[in-house]
Amino acid sequence: MKNTVKIGLLGCGTVGGGVIIVLNENKEDIARKAGCAVEVKTVLVRDKSKLKPEIEKYNIGYTDNLDDILNDPEIDIVVELIGRVHPAKEYIEAALQHGKHVVTANKDVLAEYGKSLFALAAEKQLDFQFEGAVGGGIPIIRPLRSCLAGNKISRVMGIVNGTTNYMLTRMTEAGLSYENALKEAQAKGYAESDPTADVEGIDAARKITVLASLAFNTALTLKDVHIEGIDNVEACDISYARELGYVVKLLGVAKNDPENGITANVYPVMLPKNHPLASVNDVYNAIYVNGDAVGDAMFMGRGAGRLPTASAVCGDIIDTVRNICHNACGRVSGNLFVEKKMCPPEKEMEPCYFRLLVNDRPGVLAAIASTFAAQQMSIASVIQKAVVENGLAELIIITYKVSRLSLDLSLRTLQVLPVVKKVCSVLRVEDPNL
């Protein structure tokens, strides 16, 4: 049995520095829990003249040459924390090819190349761990791989992007516009200067791709996810949702219907105020899972940040060290994926909310109802707001379940219907009564 397991760390940014801090500040506790000492031996850096303070504080070796880590026989685990798809994917492959166990928090790589990386790790009988890739410090990957493995999971949905959840919370609680909520999030460091990946739903889509692949035991990619962001959600939509008893959240939603197949979506959703996810606010994340045996289960916590994500990464490191100490490595979940069956758009059903700017005159509702009826869409409720300008009024419509195909076709018709001046917004509605 080894006395010390040594690590090669790829990247020493926000999370990488956090991992160094946790492993060193808690080293005695970690050694007891892991079964032996754990040490970061070498860090891969971009520029040796600009060392992070954590490297110098704990006297850790460093290099700007990946081969120094790959060819070091003392290093058993490579921890990849450089982010993005390339060259991270190639670095992970190289580490596995050199017989190194891998821990990563890279959702981008997993969403695109998870299946091939799982297969390579299984072939080499190596551990491949990625708890930090989704949900920051929230333990969700391991429960899906092990604790809930006996369930037939029918649905995984959650708030998996802290930036947009903070923005929607501020729009709800303080009445901020989308633009002002974004500025505030950027000022607090919750949103990047280029927030595209967050506000357009791309970040959430990568995460739901990983979660759905594990939950349904099939290899999804980002191309399988229908993506809508929050950039078209306005303050009045938040206000109308409140009037109707809902809260607006950006959700990743994946469902597995035994008959119709898998759906994977990211979009703004109107949730009933009593739904468990409705009270998850600010930068917090939460993932809601439904299994045939466990029923409903929710996992909640800080979805990002230096130490929360470092906590998840260190948990993976400890788990891998235990496996090394007990010759139990190579137990890879995900290398036995079944062929995926995606649900066709005509079978994917959800209730919807429409906010339309229409002419304030008789016959408008009849024309819109006729458009919906042509696509087999039934209206659950209609609210006409006061005239807003120049003889135009806002019309709020909630439908019963409609297919994504019918929704798309009806939108095309509404956009050219003479009585409709603008389709202002369309949101999905998560309501068991509709």
Structure description:
There is one protein chain. By secondary structure, this protein is an alpha/beta fold. It folds into 3 domains: 4-136 and 306-325, Rossmann fold (3-Layer(aba) Sandwich), CATH 3.40.50; 141-302, Dihydrodipicolinate Reductase, domain 2 (2-Layer Sandwich); 349-429, ACT domain (Alpha-Beta Plaits, 2-Layer Sandwich). It has helices at 14-25, 27-34, 53-57, 66-70, 88-97, 107-124, 141-147, 162-173, 178-187, 196-199, 202-216, 235-243, 306-325, 364-374, 404-414, and strands spanning 4-10, 37-44, 61-63, 75-80, 101-104, 128-129, 153-159, 226-227, 246-257, 261-272, 284-291, 295-302, 349-350, 352-359, 379-389, 392-399, 402-403, 420-429. Strand 15 and strand 16 (392-399) form a beta hairpin. The longest helix is centred in the C-terminal third of the chain and has 20 residues, at 306-325. The chain starts with a strand and ends in a 5-residue tail after the last strand.
Mean pLDDT: 95
CATH superfamily of the largest domain: Dihydrodipicolinate Reductase, domain 2
Number of domains: 3
Assign the structural class, choosing from mainly alpha, mainly beta, alpha/beta, alpha+beta, or little secondary structure: alpha/beta
The Cα radius of gyration reads 24 Å
Main beta-sheet annotation: 10 strands, mixed
Q: If helices are DSSP runs of H or I spanning 4 or more residues, what is the number of helices?
A: 15
CATH architecture of the largest domain, by name, is 2-Layer Sandwich
What percent of residues adopt helix (DSSP H or I)?
25-40%
CATH topology of the largest domain: Dihydrodipicolinate Reductase, domain 2
EC number: 1.1.1.3
Active site: 207
GO biological process, one term: methionine biosynthetic process
Binding site for NADPH: 107
